[in-house]
UniProtKB/TrEMBL annotation:
Function: Located at the top of the head of the 30S subunit, it contacts several helices of the 16S rRNA. In the 70S ribosome it contacts the 23S rRNA (bridge B1a) and protein L5 of the 50S subunit (bridge B1b), connecting the 2 subunits; these bridges are implicated in subunit movement. Contacts the tRNAs in the A and P-sites.
Record GO terms (molecular function): rRNA binding; structural constituent of ribosome; tRNA binding
Protein name in UniProt: Small ribosomal subunit protein uS13
Example of a GO biological process term: translation
Keywords, sorted A to Z: Ribonucleoprotein, Ribosomal protein, RNA-binding, rRNA-binding, tRNA-binding
A Pfam match: Ribosomal_S13
Keyword hit for RNA-binding: yes
InterPro entries, alphabetized: Rbsml_uS13_C, Ribosomal_uS13, Ribosomal_uS13-like_H2TH, Ribosomal_uS13_bac-type, Ribosomal_uS13_CS
Cellular component, GO annotation: cytosol; small ribosomal subunit
PANTHER family recorded: 30S RIBOSOMAL PROTEIN S13/40S RIBOSOMAL PROTEIN S18, SMALL RIBOSOMAL SUBUNIT PROTEIN US13M
Amino acid sequence: MPRIAGVNIPENKQIEIALTYIYGIGRSLSKKVLSETKIDPAAKATQLTPAEINQLKDLIEKTYKIEGDLRRERMMNIKRLKDIGSWRGLRHLKGLPVRGQRTSTNNRTVRGNVRKTVGSGRKPAAEPT
């Protein structure tokens, strides 16, 4: 398994898809990196030579912010919003949608599966014995 930026790249996938396993690299950035290094996007990760893997490593690690650095930067941005007490920071603190979505319905992903209807959370009544 090739290892780039501390992430094991899957061997049986095309390199264009395999690079997206690295946090911070999507399809478009993957295509851009492969065109800069002149590597065939359809090639499997196992078909790459060690020289090509090193070329990819160098370009990605020196040019782009990925993995731990990117996660740290995102966390610091959210922490800054919380510290200054901005509206977005308070929404992050409360675990609610940050970007203006409606909250009456359709925000299960942020809140978790919290149902607000009366009957759904009730336990069945105990049967008399």
